[in-house]
Amino acid sequence: MNRLLLAAYPEPHRSRQGEEVLACLSEAYPGRSWPPPREVAALVRAGLQARARAVVDDTARPWWLDGIHLAALALAALALVPYLQDVWHWALHIDPGQHAIAFRFSGWYPWAEGPTRIRLLPYGLLPLGCLIALLRGRAWIALPAAAAMIWAGATSHGRTLFGDEGKAGLGYYGLGAPITARDLVLSGALCAACAVLALCRPGRLRRRSYRWLAPVVLAMFVAGGLHVISVSPAFQRGLFVLEVAALIAAWVATAATGDHRWLIPVAAFAVVRMQAIVVRPDAFMQSFPDLVVLILLIAPLPALAIAAQRRQGQALAE
Protein backbone atom coordinates (compact mmCIF):
# COMPACT_ATOMS: atom_id res chain seq x y z
CA MET A 1 0.00 0.00 0.00
CA ASN A 2 2.93 2.33 0.58
CA ARG A 3 3.54 2.33 -3.17
CA LEU A 4 0.26 4.16 -3.66
CA LEU A 5 1.74 7.15 -1.84
CA LEU A 6 4.52 7.34 -4.40
CA ALA A 7 1.94 8.21 -7.06
CA ALA A 8 1.89 11.72 -5.60
CA TYR A 9 5.46 12.23 -6.81
CA PRO A 10 6.53 12.81 -10.44
CA GLU A 11 7.92 9.83 -12.32
CA PRO A 12 11.60 10.96 -12.29
CA HIS A 13 11.43 11.37 -8.52
CA ARG A 14 9.91 7.89 -8.13
CA SER A 15 12.66 6.37 -10.28
CA ARG A 16 15.45 8.02 -8.28
CA GLN A 17 14.18 7.86 -4.72
CA GLY A 18 11.10 5.62 -4.73
CA GLU A 19 12.79 2.53 -3.32
CA GLU A 20 14.57 4.61 -0.71
CA VAL A 21 11.30 6.11 0.49
CA LEU A 22 9.68 2.66 0.68
CA ALA A 23 12.64 1.31 2.66
CA CYS A 24 12.42 4.21 5.12
CA LEU A 25 8.68 3.63 5.61
CA SER A 26 9.20 -0.10 6.19
CA GLU A 27 11.93 0.62 8.73
CA ALA A 28 10.01 3.35 10.54
CA TYR A 29 6.71 1.44 10.65
CA PRO A 30 7.52 -2.29 10.56
CA GLY A 31 4.60 -4.61 9.97
CA ARG A 32 2.30 -1.81 8.81
CA SER A 33 1.01 -1.59 5.26
CA TRP A 34 0.06 2.06 5.70
CA PRO A 35 1.83 4.80 7.71
CA PRO A 36 0.00 7.01 10.23
CA PRO A 37 -2.28 9.75 8.84
CA ARG A 38 0.22 12.50 9.71
CA GLU A 39 2.92 10.74 7.68
CA VAL A 40 0.50 10.20 4.80
CA ALA A 41 -0.35 13.91 4.75
CA ALA A 42 3.34 14.84 4.82
CA LEU A 43 4.18 12.49 1.94
CA VAL A 44 1.27 13.73 -0.18
CA ARG A 45 2.22 17.33 0.51
CA ALA A 46 5.84 16.64 -0.45
CA GLY A 47 4.65 14.89 -3.61
CA LEU A 48 2.51 17.86 -4.63
CA GLN A 49 5.42 20.20 -4.01
CA ALA A 50 7.73 18.00 -6.10
CA ARG A 51 5.22 17.97 -8.95
CA ALA A 52 4.81 21.74 -8.74
CA ARG A 53 8.58 22.28 -8.89
CA ALA A 54 8.81 19.94 -11.88
CA VAL A 55 6.16 22.00 -13.67
CA VAL A 56 7.96 25.26 -12.94
CA ASP A 57 11.33 23.82 -14.02
CA ASP A 58 9.86 22.94 -17.41
CA THR A 59 10.64 26.04 -19.48
CA ALA A 60 9.02 24.77 -22.69
CA ARG A 61 6.13 27.21 -22.19
CA PRO A 62 5.60 30.53 -20.34
CA TRP A 63 3.93 30.42 -16.95
CA TRP A 64 0.91 32.44 -18.06
CA LEU A 65 0.15 30.04 -20.93
CA ASP A 66 0.27 27.10 -18.56
CA GLY A 67 -1.97 29.03 -16.17
CA ILE A 68 -4.58 29.70 -18.86
CA HIS A 69 -4.44 26.01 -19.81
CA LEU A 70 -5.12 25.03 -16.20
CA ALA A 71 -7.96 27.56 -16.02
CA ALA A 72 -9.55 26.11 -19.17
CA LEU A 73 -9.32 22.61 -17.70
CA ALA A 74 -10.96 23.77 -14.46
CA LEU A 75 -13.77 25.56 -16.30
CA ALA A 76 -14.43 22.57 -18.59
CA ALA A 77 -14.66 20.28 -15.56
CA LEU A 78 -16.95 22.76 -13.79
CA ALA A 79 -19.23 22.89 -16.85
CA LEU A 80 -19.34 19.09 -17.07
CA VAL A 81 -20.30 18.41 -13.44
CA PRO A 82 -24.06 19.11 -13.74
CA TYR A 83 -24.36 16.70 -16.67
CA LEU A 84 -22.37 13.69 -15.44
CA GLN A 85 -25.52 11.65 -14.90
CA ASP A 86 -26.99 12.67 -18.25
CA VAL A 87 -23.92 11.61 -20.24
CA TRP A 88 -23.65 8.33 -18.33
CA HIS A 89 -27.29 7.43 -19.02
CA TRP A 90 -27.00 8.42 -22.68
CA ALA A 91 -23.82 6.39 -23.21
CA LEU A 92 -25.31 3.24 -21.64
CA HIS A 93 -28.85 3.72 -22.99
CA ILE A 94 -30.26 3.89 -19.46
CA ASP A 95 -33.72 5.24 -18.75
CA PRO A 96 -33.39 6.80 -15.28
CA GLY A 97 -37.13 7.28 -14.93
CA GLN A 98 -37.93 8.79 -11.55
CA HIS A 99 -34.25 8.88 -10.65
CA ALA A 100 -33.69 11.84 -12.96
CA ILE A 101 -32.54 14.89 -11.05
CA ALA A 102 -34.08 18.27 -11.91
CA PHE A 103 -34.95 17.19 -15.45
CA ARG A 104 -38.16 18.39 -17.01
CA PHE A 105 -39.02 15.05 -18.58
CA SER A 106 -38.45 11.55 -17.24
CA GLY A 107 -37.33 10.40 -20.68
CA TRP A 108 -35.15 12.29 -23.12
CA TYR A 109 -34.17 9.69 -25.73
CA PRO A 110 -36.04 7.33 -28.05
CA TRP A 111 -35.46 4.37 -25.72
CA ALA A 112 -36.89 6.13 -22.66
CA GLU A 113 -40.30 5.08 -21.36
CA GLY A 114 -43.14 7.36 -20.47
CA PRO A 115 -43.71 10.89 -21.80
CA THR A 116 -40.61 11.68 -23.77
CA ARG A 117 -39.25 14.64 -25.62
CA ILE A 118 -36.64 13.23 -27.94
CA ARG A 119 -33.32 15.02 -28.33
CA LEU A 120 -30.31 13.83 -30.21
CA LEU A 121 -27.39 14.44 -27.85
CA PRO A 122 -26.79 15.34 -24.20
CA TYR A 123 -25.37 18.79 -23.65
CA GLY A 124 -22.70 17.29 -21.39
CA LEU A 125 -20.86 15.89 -24.42
CA LEU A 126 -19.66 19.41 -25.24
CA PRO A 127 -17.77 20.13 -21.98
CA LEU A 128 -16.61 16.50 -21.91
CA GLY A 129 -15.15 16.78 -25.40
CA CYS A 130 -13.61 20.12 -24.46
CA LEU A 131 -12.05 18.59 -21.35
CA ILE A 132 -10.56 15.63 -23.24
CA ALA A 133 -9.15 17.89 -25.96
CA LEU A 134 -7.57 20.21 -23.39
CA LEU A 135 -6.04 17.28 -21.51
CA ARG A 136 -4.34 16.22 -24.72
CA GLY A 137 -3.26 19.77 -25.56
CA ARG A 138 -5.59 20.05 -28.56
CA ALA A 139 -6.96 23.55 -28.08
CA TRP A 140 -8.06 23.74 -31.72
CA ILE A 141 -10.54 20.93 -30.97
CA ALA A 142 -11.64 22.38 -27.63
CA LEU A 143 -12.39 25.81 -29.15
CA PRO A 144 -15.35 24.76 -31.37
CA ALA A 145 -16.73 22.64 -28.52
CA ALA A 146 -16.66 25.67 -26.22
CA ALA A 147 -18.23 27.85 -28.93
CA ALA A 148 -20.99 25.25 -29.33
CA MET A 149 -21.62 25.51 -25.58
CA ILE A 150 -22.30 29.24 -26.00
CA TRP A 151 -24.63 28.57 -28.93
CA ALA A 152 -26.50 25.84 -27.08
CA GLY A 153 -26.92 27.98 -23.96
CA ALA A 154 -28.08 31.02 -25.91
CA THR A 155 -30.60 29.09 -28.07
CA SER A 156 -31.83 26.48 -25.63
CA HIS A 157 -35.56 26.90 -26.21
CA GLY A 158 -37.23 24.90 -28.93
CA ARG A 159 -34.13 23.01 -30.00
CA THR A 160 -34.11 19.25 -30.59
CA LEU A 161 -30.33 18.79 -30.82
CA PHE A 162 -29.67 19.28 -27.10
CA GLY A 163 -33.28 19.91 -26.01
CA ASP A 164 -33.31 22.25 -23.03
CA GLU A 165 -29.80 21.04 -22.15
CA GLY A 166 -31.37 18.29 -20.07
CA LYS A 167 -31.53 20.48 -17.01
CA ALA A 168 -34.50 22.53 -15.91
CA GLY A 169 -33.69 23.30 -12.30
CA LEU A 170 -31.12 22.67 -9.60
CA GLY A 171 -28.09 20.57 -10.41
CA TYR A 172 -24.68 19.73 -9.08
CA TYR A 173 -22.79 22.56 -7.48
CA GLY A 174 -20.60 22.93 -4.47
CA LEU A 175 -19.43 26.43 -3.66
CA GLY A 176 -22.24 28.78 -4.56
CA ALA A 177 -25.29 28.89 -6.78
CA PRO A 178 -26.08 26.43 -9.59
CA ILE A 179 -24.46 27.09 -12.96
CA THR A 180 -26.57 25.99 -15.93
CA ALA A 181 -25.96 25.94 -19.66
CA ARG A 182 -27.80 29.24 -19.96
CA ASP A 183 -25.17 30.94 -17.81
CA LEU A 184 -22.93 32.18 -20.62
CA VAL A 185 -20.24 33.56 -18.31
CA LEU A 186 -18.84 30.06 -17.76
CA SER A 187 -18.99 28.99 -21.41
CA GLY A 188 -17.78 32.41 -22.57
CA ALA A 189 -14.76 32.34 -20.26
CA LEU A 190 -13.97 28.79 -21.37
CA CYS A 191 -14.24 29.77 -25.04
CA ALA A 192 -11.98 32.80 -24.50
CA ALA A 193 -9.36 30.64 -22.76
CA CYS A 194 -9.49 28.05 -25.56
CA ALA A 195 -9.12 30.81 -28.16
CA VAL A 196 -5.99 32.12 -26.46
CA LEU A 197 -4.54 28.61 -26.26
CA ALA A 198 -5.35 27.91 -29.91
CA LEU A 199 -3.67 31.12 -31.05
CA CYS A 200 -0.53 30.77 -28.92
CA ARG A 201 1.19 27.85 -30.64
CA PRO A 202 -0.91 24.90 -29.41
CA GLY A 203 2.05 22.56 -29.88
CA ARG A 204 3.59 24.10 -26.76
CA LEU A 205 0.71 23.06 -24.52
CA ARG A 206 1.27 20.40 -21.90
CA ARG A 207 -0.22 17.02 -22.83
CA ARG A 208 -1.58 14.88 -20.05
CA SER A 209 -2.29 11.17 -20.03
CA TYR A 210 -5.74 9.72 -20.59
CA ARG A 211 -5.41 8.36 -17.05
CA TRP A 212 -6.53 11.78 -15.86
CA LEU A 213 -10.00 10.82 -17.16
CA ALA A 214 -10.32 8.04 -14.58
CA PRO A 215 -11.79 10.41 -11.92
CA VAL A 216 -14.27 11.69 -14.53
CA VAL A 217 -15.47 8.16 -15.33
CA LEU A 218 -15.73 7.41 -11.61
CA ALA A 219 -17.78 10.57 -11.06
CA MET A 220 -20.09 9.59 -13.92
CA PHE A 221 -20.58 6.16 -12.38
CA VAL A 222 -21.36 7.64 -8.97
CA ALA A 223 -23.78 10.22 -10.38
CA GLY A 224 -25.45 8.02 -12.99
CA GLY A 225 -24.91 4.43 -11.93
CA LEU A 226 -25.75 4.89 -8.25
CA HIS A 227 -28.46 7.55 -8.79
CA VAL A 228 -26.88 9.90 -6.28
CA ILE A 229 -29.22 12.80 -5.56
CA SER A 230 -27.38 16.02 -6.26
CA VAL A 231 -29.58 18.08 -3.94
CA SER A 232 -28.61 15.86 -1.03
CA PRO A 233 -26.66 17.79 1.63
CA ALA A 234 -24.16 14.92 1.77
CA PHE A 235 -23.43 15.26 -1.95
CA GLN A 236 -23.18 19.03 -1.69
CA ARG A 237 -20.71 18.81 1.18
CA GLY A 238 -18.70 16.20 -0.72
CA LEU A 239 -18.34 18.50 -3.72
CA PHE A 240 -17.55 21.36 -1.36
CA VAL A 241 -14.67 19.35 0.15
CA LEU A 242 -13.38 18.47 -3.33
CA GLU A 243 -13.30 22.09 -4.46
CA VAL A 244 -11.65 23.23 -1.23
CA ALA A 245 -9.04 20.47 -1.64
CA ALA A 246 -8.26 21.78 -5.13
CA LEU A 247 -7.83 25.31 -3.75
CA ILE A 248 -5.51 24.01 -1.03
CA ALA A 249 -3.46 22.13 -3.65
CA ALA A 250 -3.08 25.39 -5.59
CA TRP A 251 -1.91 27.13 -2.41
CA VAL A 252 0.63 24.36 -1.68
CA ALA A 253 2.00 24.56 -5.22
CA THR A 254 2.26 28.35 -5.07
CA ALA A 255 3.90 28.36 -1.64
CA ALA A 256 6.42 25.73 -2.78
CA THR A 257 7.47 27.45 -6.00
CA GLY A 258 6.58 31.13 -5.78
CA ASP A 259 5.07 30.80 -9.26
CA HIS A 260 1.92 32.70 -10.19
CA ARG A 261 0.46 30.28 -12.75
CA TRP A 262 -1.96 28.74 -10.23
CA LEU A 263 -3.48 32.15 -9.56
CA ILE A 264 -5.10 32.10 -13.01
CA PRO A 265 -7.32 28.99 -12.60
CA VAL A 266 -8.23 30.01 -9.03
CA ALA A 267 -9.24 33.48 -10.27
CA ALA A 268 -11.28 32.02 -13.14
CA PHE A 269 -13.05 29.63 -10.78
CA ALA A 270 -13.80 32.38 -8.26
CA VAL A 271 -15.13 34.81 -10.89
CA VAL A 272 -17.49 32.25 -12.43
CA ARG A 273 -18.74 31.06 -9.05
CA MET A 274 -19.22 34.55 -7.65
CA GLN A 275 -21.04 35.73 -10.77
CA ALA A 276 -23.58 32.93 -10.34
CA ILE A 277 -24.08 33.94 -6.70
CA VAL A 278 -24.53 37.64 -7.51
CA VAL A 279 -27.01 36.94 -10.31
CA ARG A 280 -29.06 34.45 -8.26
CA PRO A 281 -28.36 35.07 -4.58
CA ASP A 282 -31.49 33.13 -3.58
CA ALA A 283 -30.39 29.92 -5.34
CA PHE A 284 -28.18 28.58 -2.54
CA MET A 285 -28.92 25.14 -1.15
CA GLN A 286 -28.27 26.66 2.29
CA SER A 287 -25.86 23.86 3.12
CA PHE A 288 -23.46 26.67 4.02
CA PRO A 289 -24.16 30.31 4.90
CA ASP A 290 -23.88 32.69 1.95
CA LEU A 291 -21.19 34.81 3.59
CA VAL A 292 -19.03 31.75 4.32
CA VAL A 293 -19.16 30.69 0.67
CA LEU A 294 -18.29 34.17 -0.58
CA ILE A 295 -15.32 34.37 1.79
CA LEU A 296 -14.10 30.94 0.70
CA LEU A 297 -14.23 32.09 -2.92
CA ILE A 298 -12.48 35.42 -2.38
CA ALA A 299 -9.88 34.47 0.24
CA PRO A 300 -7.71 32.14 -1.92
CA LEU A 301 -6.70 34.91 -4.33
CA PRO A 302 -4.79 37.15 -1.88
CA ALA A 303 -3.58 34.04 -0.04
CA LEU A 304 -1.96 32.68 -3.20
CA ALA A 305 -0.47 36.07 -4.10
CA ILE A 306 1.03 36.46 -0.62
CA ALA A 307 2.37 32.89 -0.69
CA ALA A 308 4.04 33.50 -4.06
CA GLN A 309 5.55 36.80 -2.91
CA ARG A 310 6.85 35.25 0.32
CA ARG A 311 8.44 32.35 -1.53
CA GLN A 312 10.12 34.68 -3.99
CA GLY A 313 11.46 36.73 -1.07
CA GLN A 314 12.88 33.59 0.54
CA ALA A 315 14.51 32.57 -2.74
CA LEU A 316 16.20 35.97 -3.05
CA ALA A 317 17.39 35.81 0.55
CA GLU A 318 18.98 32.40 -0.04
From TrEMBL:
Keyword annotations from UniProtKB, A to Z: Membrane, Transmembrane, Transmembrane helix
Positions of transmembrane segments: 63-84, 118-135, 140-159, 179-200, 212-229, 235-255, 262-279, 291-308
Transport in keyword set: no
Protein name: Uncharacterized protein
Species, as recorded: Streptomyces humidus
